[in-house]
């Protein structure tokens, strides 16, 4: 409390036209007893105390400046057809921003018709008199056309919310679950909204609305109808219906794109009042108001095209009964620039389509998954492997020696496939944690192999090398972990040299495993053989590129070896887990700083090889792979995406080949710190030479 005798110039901010409100607060609190507190709804003592934080952004929520003052919203204000078209497109633009991970209160809920649905229901409104009717602005545009569109929008958000809440995406990380206590029409039947949308399209057909805007509004209602039908249809249980609806939605989207709305409504148009970015002042929310600029019409259409492509891909994936195909697609979505990671809703739907908690793809048991794991890895049925092992098993374990193997695979495969559709950081973290389980599987298979009677078998027989099945998967995961560090821009310049060297080392071990399978196990007539041939060529080219970048980036290394050591153990702590000490089998392809330093010293002593020639070799292998048209056995409908991935690497090779040194003198003059640029939007793993474009 400020003393009454306080002089005016002693007041805080005196001289800035501030007014002393001491008497106002004294009068307001005159009837309160000491230690009493007044509360308002949804504002407790905890909120009051937290608001004392200096700079608390929520304190600004109630501040309304002159520019933000808006007249009361009137949902029955007549609209022109083009104004309604503009409103529907802007609402869809905000919906796209919700799918991008923003709060409903900052996106969909800024659409004021969402909060006034009861006020423009044609079933309860009194008919207008003839004097109130405006032929250019019929009330039916609001009550019969706009209302079901708003209901369908909310219901689509409801289905998206339900799917995301199932756990395939992560609240506050991928999306925001806060509804701000605004209904998403959770209890309204879908068929009722679909019926109302049909009524709206039928009314438009019979109305006097100009043909241009009649077609535009019908296209938007049809797109909203098919989106709602898609999101309410299970892609597994209703496969054909789901895929048909996706094609219908794509046709509707093309119709929408062919009938764009006005570029912008006039400032005095009532359509401008349909959105209030400051609606959060009147909602129950615990975050500051954030003004989100909705994307343009073209950007919104591009989003929904991407959204529908993702839904189409879910429908195609549902038909694939090969777990390797799912793995290929998940990896392609992460590493092909331009394809992007799908919006959280699509990623979550993909995960639940693969495994909903009981059956894989809603039709296969976990035993089926075990068999597919071995068949797709080496072309041999699981039962054949078990029979061969049991006939030669001499271990002390009673019962089937594969019990531990089966437990490990149950814990590994379905989480691994689902993790491919996590966001990139979480995907990487999952892979790092799963490596221990993959080594558990490798150790279990090795222990079985060691207890087999194989003296009479030739060297390289399947029973002698079958533990490498687990090793193939584990080495692929290690490669993804290390290379994803470039995509996520985790590495400092000093760390990049080791990352490329370690990747090349892991690939070398992977190639040794593949060569062993190709020579001794896999039948050339089997489906596995073309996939392994593809992997050998692809990995050989990738190894050559990594070795070239290892040589080129050696000058980026720090000479502070103590700091290098600390950075190494911090970055690769996932490889040095204590659990590995409990296993019988040594861990394969561990990161080894000592070996790395010896390799660097040997290169400096013998002279650095020219990295440009290594890039040329990689390009030659990749071009041969493209010309052979071998994209492996399991790519299926994504063969084109696999070729695009290879072509992207060819483009990288073209850039690096033209810019990287090809002689020792050029290498000495090359400044990697200045001339190499890592940009994940160009390529997620490899840099480009500054001044030379990558097509």
UniProtKB/TrEMBL annotation:
Q: Which domain of life is it from?
A: Eukaryota
Q: Does the keyword rRNA-binding apply?
A: no
- Do the record's keywords include Cytoplasm? yes
Location in or out of the cell: Cytoplasm
| Residue span, NAA35-like TPR repeats domain | 346-512
Which Pfam family, giving just one, matches this sequence?
TPR_NAA35
UniProt keyword list: Cytoplasm
Q: Which organism is it from?
A: Agrocybe pediades
What is the phylogenetic placement of the source species in the record? Answer: Eukaryota, Fungi, Dikarya, Basidiomycota, Agaricomycotina
Gene Ontology cellular component terms for the protein in this record? NatC complex
Protein name stated in the entry: Uncharacterized protein
The family line of this record is: Belongs to the MAK10 family.
PANTHER family in the cross-refs:
GLUCOSE REPRESSIBLE PROTEIN MAK10, N-ALPHA-ACETYLTRANSFERASE 35, NATC AUXILIARY SUBUNIT
Q: Tell me where in this chain the NAA35-like N-terminal domain is found.
A: 36-193
